[in-house]
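Predict the 3D structure for this chain.
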Amino acid sequence: LPSTSSGSGSSDSGAVNMVHEVLRQQYMSRHIPDFDRMGITTLRQARKLTQTQLRSMGVALYLQRERLINAFADYRPKNKAIMKILIDCNLASHAREFEKLIDVEDAKNLTHSDLRAMGINLYGQRERLMRAFMEFKGKKKK
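Done. Predicted structure below.
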């Protein structure tokens, strides 16, 4: 298991933690402190975890460990900016529906009907999300 190092630079406070997101999606958020304590902060690290390592981290049941291994392997964060917007709008549970989108520019083309079909049923949530996509300013390298 990787050791915790403060010089990694991968855990700035504004960053979306995909490991935490996978744990939440699998209803195993109680293990977030265990992952943090072991320094598992990236999907790359989480995808390398074995049954034995997960057991030592407190994931006691075989099927839960297997489910986590598969979830980390299958998780495809298409765009971190989209994920950040979803989290900011309290809609992270809908991340799977947004995996097909290439980037925020794609998301800007979504309509209320599209979002409703993706399971976002409340008008206010759709409106807030559409506004967040439209107001998004991507980082431009100069």
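Confidence is low (pLDDT under 50) at residues 2-14.
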